[in-house]
Amino acid sequence: MKITYKLSYLTQDDIDNIWIYTFEQWSQVQANKYFKELFKTIDIICKNPEIGYPIHQIKEDYGIKKFKSHLIVYKFYNQKILIVRVLHKKMDIENQEFE
Fold first, then answer.
1. 75 falls in which pLDDT band (50, 70, 90)?
2. Which residues of 6-31 are buried (b: 16+ CB within 10 A; e: fewer)?
3. What is the value of pTM for the model shown?
4. CATH ID of 4-91, from 3.30.2310.20, 3.60.15.10, 3.40.1190.20, 3.10.20.310
């Protein structure tokens, strides 16, 4: 059975902001490339939810997978992956809103 994923509303905002920033700093081509690679990484998480490392000290049952300059925060439940946030690696994860 293939594991599916869902993006939280916060994740959708995160991804939109990442695309806009990349577009403004580099180009539309680069923004689209980064976007595609991000979703390939999400597909990898769906194939192997244990690939990330747990962040129990911040949020129980959540994991993080590094992706270039960002961290994909996710939760595995009911055979689905909820992508909770996509945060820049320099952000203070402990003080971020989840879900």
1. very high
2. ebbebbeebbeebbeebbeeeeeeeb
3. 0.92
4. 3.30.2310.20
